[in-house]
Design brief:
- By secondary structure, the protein is of the alpha/beta class.
- Strands 1, 2, 3, 4, 5, 6, 7, 10, 11 and 12 form a ten-stranded mixed β-sheet that branches. Strands 8-9 form a two-stranded antiparallel ribbon.
- Helix 10 runs antiparallel to helix 11.
- It is globular, with a radius of gyration of 25 Å.
Length: 373
Amino acid sequence: MRMGDIQLGGDNLKVAVYAICKNEAKNVPRWYDSIQEADGVFVTDTGSTDNTVELFKERGVNVFHAEIEPWRFDVARNISLENVPNNYDVCLCIDLDEVMEKGWREKVERIFRLYPQATLVRWPFVFSWFDEKCTKPKTSMYQWKIHVRHGYHWESPIHEILAWHGEGETLEVYCEDIHSWHYQDLSKPREYQKLIDKAISEDPTDQRLSWLRARELMMHNRFEEAIEEAKRHLDLTKEIEEGENRMVIEQLRALSMRYISQALMQRHKQDKTVDAGEVIEWMLKSVAECPWLRESWVALAQAWALFDQWEQVYACATFAQTIKARTNSIENDELAWGDYPEKLAKMAWKQIKKGGKRFEQQAKNRRSEGVKA
């Protein structure tokens, strides 16, 4: 089926929402309230023991059941997608701990009217928060789970991605008007590390899984292991093969380099034994790999600040503010996109001025001593 032959821009676009779930009773009301603009909602339950299923049925949701052993996210999502009838045009895949902004359906219809050959839509998505009340975004990205019903397939046992298996070319459209948020339940066990380790044991040459493992290790403060895995990821990506997305791989390499530097910084804070040159070297490599990433320049400024190199802090923080495009980044560190770079530059400038005054006073003292002599 060629996407060029499909016209999704009509007035009768059928939109489905599909999801996988297990023991999500407390999230059902909020989740359903945010997605009920869809023409059909299809949920695949993978073994709930609470009243999740009953709550869905009360709301008219189509509920299916699946036992998946051993667990793989891609298998679960593909089963869930298969449960969406073939006569739907567009699908939104959204987890139960995520919420869509009201009015998303109308915006999706507008996108496909303007771009009838679109295959996937990306939109701003807040992934994590600084505070428990979820009022200060920490990490955001461009979500990518609105897609045409036919042609896509989920791949990877953990941190799964949509892969195109249809005919013709894909067309991804960015929409700044759609928004969604992730409200992770921190009380639920997160066993992603085990799943990633298992996936890597099955395919140790998968560079994306290697990067994900390094990131997961950083999240759990396992810094020495993170350094080792990040270096392995860099070895796996020394040469970018034909057909691979060079821009994405270069970003992952830049992030691995940043992980190494940040892990070394944590070690320095603990025992002061880390060579400053090594910390800065890895951060400089990260910037050189992807100089268009605002986050890398802010991270480099932070590294310079750790060693009181305020002229460098000022230069990096100031340059970071000139980078305006978020869409080039896999992950957006909200700290880098707020007023923090400006504050960092102002702090550095104050330190530079203090240093200049100290230098002037020292020079004045030396002149006075010379006169006395």
